[in-house]
Input
Amino acid sequence: MSSTATGSSGLPLGMPSARKLNAQELSLLLLRLLDTAPAHGSALSDRVEKLSQGFYRPSPGSLYPALYALTEHDRIAQTRAGRRKVYALTDAGRAWLGSHEGEAERVDQRLRRAGRKLSAMRRAYELNMPDEESSTLAQSMLEARMDLKAALHECLDLPPAAQRRIIQSLTQAAAFIRALDTPMAPDDEQDFRHRP
Output
C-alpha cells in the first residue's frame, strides 16, 4: 500500500485517537473546503466539525500552522476582512488539489464515516443514558475503536508468537466486554486489567 493511498500514517482502517488527521491530510481537507468558498480560520474549523458531525474540530495549534504552510506554498492567499484573515484558494492550490483529489476525497469520506458512526453511537448511548455523559462516552468509544483498529493494522508484520498474543488479548477483551452485563467481583476485574 502506498502512503498516498492511505495517508502518511498508513492506516486505511481507522485513525489513531491522538491525531485524527496528519498535517498533509488536514491541508488537503482545508484546500477542499476553500475550493467551495473563501473562509476565515474559525469558519474553517466550524466546517470541518460540521462535515464530521462533531467528531473532529482542528485545534488552533493544528489549523493555523497548516494555513500558514499552505500560504507559504502559494496554495492559498490571505486577505484581511476587519480583524480576520480570510483564506482563498489560489490557482496553484487548485491545481495541486486537482492532482491530489483522490487522497482529498479519502480524507473527506473518512471524516464523514467517523461522524456517521459517532452520531449512531450517540443515539444508542442516549437511549440507555439520557444525559450529557452519553455524548462524551460515544466520542471516547469511537476513538478507542479506531485506535484499536489502527494498532491492529500497525502490527500486521509481527512474528506469529506476537500475533497469537494479540489474538489471545482480543479474545479475553471480547469476553470481558460481553460479561459486563453480569456483575463482576472487584478481584476479577483487577485480575483482568493486570493480565499481560
